[in-house]
Amino acid sequence: MTKKVNSKNDVKLGPSRTEYTTTKQGESEIATFLESALVNVDIQQFAFGIAFTDILPRKKVTTLLKQRYNVLKESANFLRSLPTDELSRNPFKHPELVGLWADSEHAKIGHSVIGTFRSLFLQYCKQSSTKSIVLIVLC
């Protein structure tokens, strides 16, 4: 995934060193990992993806962020639909626990890039007194 390259002639002289660059396979692996990270619901994986979004084409990043947003939304809706028992001995049916899980997913949606844009757009529409059409293009 990396290969050895020769130093350029204009490099400052100093102790010997070995320089490396990524191969085509390495670039492909990085892109695959970034794509996976940008749709991941795990915050550490997602943070890595966000930190290196400039490596991927902007349209691809937007598509992946929309996918993550939809997955989080589906997950939150599923959690809200789970049956609960007020005095359940089964912890998976306890309303507080199910509510905690669902609220956690909703928080991820609110903090996602697409969720933030959507929220700002809706806030703008509520505050706007004009009848103009607003279009947000994420690309």
Describe what this molecule looks like in 3D:
- 58% of the residues lie in helices and 6% in strands.
- The longest helix has 24 residues, at 58-81.
- By secondary structure, the protein is mostly helical.
- The protein has a two-stranded antiparallel ribbon.
- The protein is built from five helices and two strands.
What are the main properties of this structure?
single chain; about 140 residues; mainly alpha; two-stranded antiparallel sheet; 2 strands; about 60% helix; disordered C terminus
Q: Could you write a compact summary of the structure shown?
A:
The chain has 139 residues and is mainly alpha-helical.
Biggest β-sheet: strands ordered side by side in the sheet: 1-2
Largest sheet: 2 strands, antiparallel
Instruction: Give the DSSP E fraction (strand runs of 2 or more residues).
Output: 5-15%
The rough form would be described as elongated
Distance between the termini: 30 Å
- The whole-number mean of residue pLDDT values reads 75
Q: Which spans have pLDDT < 50 for at least 5 consecutive residues?
A: 130-139
* Rg, Å, rounded: 23 Å
Number of helices: 5
Structural class of the secondary elements? mainly alpha
Topology pattern, helix = H, strand = E: EEHHHHH
User: Percent helix among the residues?
Assistant: 55-70%
Q: What is the number of strand segments?
A: 2
